[in-house]
Amino acid sequence: MSTRVLTGITTTGTPHLGNYAGAIRPAIQASRQPGIDGFYFMADYHALIKCDDPARVARSRLELAATWLAAGLDTERVTFYRQSDIPEIPELCWLLTCVTAKGLMNRAHAYKASVDQNAAKGVDPDDGITMGLFSYPILMAADILLFNAHKVPVGRDQIQHLEMARDIAQRFNHLYGREYFVLPEVVIEEEVATLPGLDGRKMSKSYNNTIPLFEGGAAALRAAVMRIVTDSRQPGEPKDAEASHLYTLYRAFSTPAESAAFRAQLEEGLGWGDAKQALCERIERDLAPMRERYQDLIANPGRIEEILQAGAQKARKLATPFIAELREAVGLRTLGAAQATGKAARKSGKSARFVSFRDDDGRFRFRLLAADGQELLRSAGFDNPKEAGALMQRLQAGAADSLRADGLAYAAVLDGEPVAHGPAAADAAQRDALIEQTRQALAALGG
Ligand code: TRP
């Protein structure tokens, strides 16, 4: 069974070394593993929460897309898209907003930090806080739950948001009576570098201590590296490698053997100027070929747009049927169908039903149960719940033609493939009766 891994990056700034080593590089490496179904997106709706400068949001989307592609993301293999190209995300966000306790959002760290800052300033607690900031975790939950991601690699600051996504998913599943959503797991990769910025604090656009990845070319990279804060030890004096951000940065771009050699040089007294030079050269070895691809892409935004449109299409293939199922779940249904189902149910006084579940292997299956609970069909296992959901809908819609006898048992066959099996009967007559009962149950469900 493949594992769906999903992560997004907010498009508010120019990608820096920290974004690359901490998020983009590990995501690309993971996406090359067998059995990984990668979903990578640009969180541009989230960007609007933090940034009201349209030019900056627009530029950041372009730069970030070009960065993912230049860094080697294989968009044939993964699904790569912009959040704002998937209208099902805000639609799901609303469905989730309606089941999310306000109290849960009150506890969000980012919101609480803003309230605390306001308190410290002596202004109104909600000063400058938008509903976007307050509901930020719900939009993030929608990003994740829409695609039923199993694993979500993020930085430590996002752990609480993942917990909230699980809470919200559970609440929805519970209210609407089945496991619509997979509960996503947070992945904090210990191996992955959290890079220090120029001043030694975590590299972050909010601290203004970043080293640009591609923008400004090799010169800008070099200029930033030269500004890394070091201690005052002179050339010839032994340096404490472990305590130096320079060494941490070097390690993030080199093999264990290379970093051991660099460390030995520092301990032998390599001057900081030469150390910075060595760091630049090491980083450049990795980045120079990517930067060329980056510049080529930035010069051809139309090409990036095409790739993103194709990615959105791929993502929506899953999102569109799933949101239809969720709308149905909450009662946003086509009126004709609702009436017919109601009528059929009234006539028999009780009704057959589909139930879906996840088996021990983690595969998604469904069962069709008769009104009295007897199993009429049990599906094959599917890798994702939407596949199972779509087949349920097709069986419901085109019921009459799908059932085939199979020895003393029977199967529901779609596109020539058996997708679900009925129980074995004692004899052919009993089998035919079961087939007829199944046909009627499906017809009643389909209205
Ligand atoms: N909130 C994340 C951040 O700031 C970005 C993000 C938005 C995200 N939606 C997501 C990350 C969904 C993972 C999954 O880093």
UniProtKB/TrEMBL annotation:
InterPro entries: aa-tRNA-synth_Ic (IPR002305), Rossmann-like_a/b/a_fold (IPR014729), Trp-tRNA-ligase (IPR002306), Trp-tRNA-ligase_bac-type (IPR024109), Trp-tRNA_synthetase (IPR050203), YegP-like_sf (IPR036913)
GO cellular component terms, A-Z: cytosol
GO molecular function, one term: ATP binding
Keyword annotations from UniProtKB, A to Z: Aminoacyl-tRNA synthetase, ATP-binding, Cytoplasm, Ligase, Nucleotide-binding, Protein biosynthesis
Positions annotated to bind L-tryptophan: 143
Alphabetized Pfam families for the sequence: tRNA-synt_1b
A single GO BP: tryptophanyl-tRNA aminoacylation
Motif ('HIGH' region): 11-19
Catalytic activity: tRNA(Trp) + L-tryptophan + ATP = L-tryptophyl-tRNA(Trp) + AMP + diphosphate + H(+)
Domain of life from the UniProt record: Bacteria
Signal peptide: none
SUPFAM superfamilies xref list: Nucleotidylyl transferase, YegP-like
Keyword Cytoplasm assigned: yes
EC number(s) from the headed UniProt entry: 6.1.1.2
Residue positions binding ATP: 10-12, 18-19, 155-157, 195, 202-206
Residue ranges annotated as motif 'KMSKS' region: 202-206
Location in the cell: Cytoplasm
Quaternary assembly: Homodimer.
Protein's job: Catalyzes the attachment of tryptophan to tRNA(Trp).
Family: Belongs to the class-I aminoacyl-tRNA synthetase family.
Protein's name according to its UniProt entry: Tryptophan--tRNA ligase
Organism expressing this protein natively: Bordetella genomosp. 2
UniProt gene name: trpS
